[in-house]
What we know:
The structure holds two protein chains of two kinds.
Chain A: E1 9-18, E2 23-30, H1 33-38, E3 46-51, E4 55-60, E5 71-76, H2 80-86, E6 93-100, E7 113-119, H3 123-135, E8 143-149, H4 161-166, E9 170-176, E10 186-187, H5 190-197, E11 204-209, H6 212-224, E12 232-235, E13 251-252, E14 255-256, E15 263-265, H7 266-271
Parallel strand pairs in A: 7-8, 7-11, 8-9, 9-10, 11-12
Antiparallel strand pairs in A: 1-2, 1-6, 2-5, 3-4, 3-6, 12-15, 13-14
Chain B: E1 2-3, H1 7-15, E2 19-24, E3 32-35, E4 61-68, E5 75-78, E6 86-91, H2 93-106, H3 114-121, E7 123-128, H4 139-142, H5 145-150, E8 154-158, E9 163-168, H6 171-178, H7 188-203, H8 210-216, H9 222-230, H10 236-240, E10 247-253, E11 259-265, H11 286-305, H12 315-318, H13 326-337
Amino acid sequence: MDSNPYQPHLATLEDVITETSDTKTFRAAFRDTDLRETFTYEPGQFQEVSVFGQGEATFCLTSTPTRKGYIEFSVKKVGQVTESLHGMSPGDVVGIRGPFGNWFPYSEWKGKKLLFIGGGIGMAPLRSLLNFCLDNRSDYGPVDIIYGARSPQDFCYENEFEAWGGAPDTRLHLTVDRGDDSWKGNVGFVPAYLNDLNPSPEGLIAITCGPPIMIKFVLQNLDKLGFAPEQVYSTLEMKMKCGIGKCGRCNIGDKFVCIDGPVFSYAQLKELPPEF
Amino acid sequence: MLAKSDLSRWLAALAAEFRVVGAVSDGGAPPAWRKLEPGDTPVLDNLRWVMPPKEQVLPGYEPLFTYCARKGEEEITSAVPAEEPTLMFGLRPCDARSFAVLDATYLDGRFSDPYYAARRAQMTTVAYVCESKRWSCFCSSVGDPVEWVKACDLAITDAGEDAWIVTAFTGKGEKLLEAGGCMSAATEAACASRDAIWEDLARANEHFDAQAVARAVDWEEPVWAEIAGRCTGCGICSYLCPTCTCFDIQDEECPGGAIERYRVRDSCQFCDFTKMGHGHNPRPGKKERTRQRLSHKFKYLPERSGMSGCVGCGRCIHLCPVNTDTRKIIAEVMGVHGQ
């Protein structure tokens, strides 16, 4: 990391993948070829992406540090910067600064079973960890992925479903809020599908991210299924500007999501004031 | 001791080595901090004035870098200021302390802020010890202002009509005493007068223990709704607070096509401060925003760094258009939950 944490590195967009009607995934490579190889990060960390002239916005790193040479971030179109990004094409220049924040404590999870529970664009931070674990497959026990979207058209990362479901001892469980004629999978909300699958908490770590309402009920249901709060992890989203604990936006009580988070165990979340 | 008639001679000698910054009343306007030019007389009276010195370390508007957007020549040019020996002349104890509070955030080891760090790196501090307080002052409620003074390099205390007594606390301060050969030996009477002023400063207010206040400040405090009921959300409290430095980051296209990224002072009291792109706002009302500002000062910062985020300068009390009184809020919080 440079000594000036406010100053981004220039990066060129290499690929833009349309995920859904409002979400795209961007692959960017640093212009500095040394940095392309040396830049590293941890699953769960985030970055600030600049569209020069429009401003900066916060996105998690959805790529895995096990795959070098580029970084990826997924962007849902909601405001000025995200709309500008959606108008960009391969070859365009963006600024990247980071990585910021803490990360999933994966080194403590070796040998454990992993359960990923994602909803919509909330799959973005989980994807980093998921691909990281699949790239280090022998370090972990069985992996289950529950991924829900509003409709079959609202899944991100569909081009990876085969790789995820086909990895050794790994199962992908898809669900949609509303199906259509061609949908053969489960129909129902993620928290209900979690109950149907009824995972045993024995030796398992659950990692969840999605819309706040989904996270709320997933946490409740995991609790009912017998998961201890220390077995459950999530990653939070708050308005951020600086990413380094200065600008004063993202704190929940005395914790700054940008430097103390964004990854928290459910045990830690319970200690925070109910602001989120 | 410094004869009051020798002030300009001493300042001229200091200006040879430092960019000397003091509070100046330009054309009768309220004193404001700026670089002292030859002939300027900094305000050295008893009263804490309206503007805090935060602008000298964290300007309300500050370029972070410029970006050249010309195709194929894309490049970033840093705007980190050069370090410069700067002497802050005449800091009230509260304002002197405010730098220590800001240091806790901006010089945090994980991510030091290079803009702030450059301005603080070669800063020398000269305090002016208040001989009495404004009605709104409450420094000695939240800490020990004499200790804050002693954390400076030098302190000036009134020693009667003709002279100030000048006390050094550091090697840097000792050197300042030598500048211009303006100092004379302190008389016993002057030392006694100084000690009396310092003692008075330390004991003038009812004391709140910062850690006890931090423990007492509660999320469900009824006082948050009470304050919110009359608060207009104008943000003057944070604008004038010496330790309120929240900021926004913005881009602007400059003439010629370069893009400037700058930060600009913001306030947690404004409604969009925490509003996210998709519309959710974790602090949607004045109650949540009031709770945030006061909890940050009196709970979160003490819990994070061990020091009160409030220096008791009283500006937020003095200038609040609806007479919200921070002292009464702390008293109420302590009355409900304290001890």
